[in-house]
Amino acid sequence: MGNSISDIIEQHLKRILDESPSGMVELQRSELADVFQCVPSQINYVISTRFSIDHGYIVESKRGGGGYIRIRRLELEKTRPLLLLAKGIGERVSQREAEGLIERLFREELISEREMIIVQSAIHRDVLRLDLPLRDEVRARILTQVLIQLSTMMIQPPGSDE
Asked: Which CATH architecture has domain 76-155?
């Protein structure tokens, strides 16, 4: 038959997402592992390799007893520019490059002036008092996450019910 357990888990999750009116599914790693009689790390593997941003999904996870994994399908047409920017940031970004990107988001009216100032202050070298290259790595992570959150908010505006 040729279907690996990873393929079966992926197909199952995509079917649930297709049936979800919000394009989002929340599940428990351990319960899914029980259903498919596999180890939880197998579930992690499928989610990290087949439900990444590149594939059009945002995955949030909360560990611990009541932990869950939330998978949300992105409408790539709306969010593609932001996700491409997020992917393009890479491992490190200088303060000057980051400020240029944030100013571009403001110019293109993807963020307000207030949001621009908040993000710029959060990634400033005086706040990220770390040695290079660590400072540029932390800045890149922060900026990537800001872009991912912006793309999520374009689909599911804050305050709207899921």
From this structure: Orthogonal Bundle (1.10)
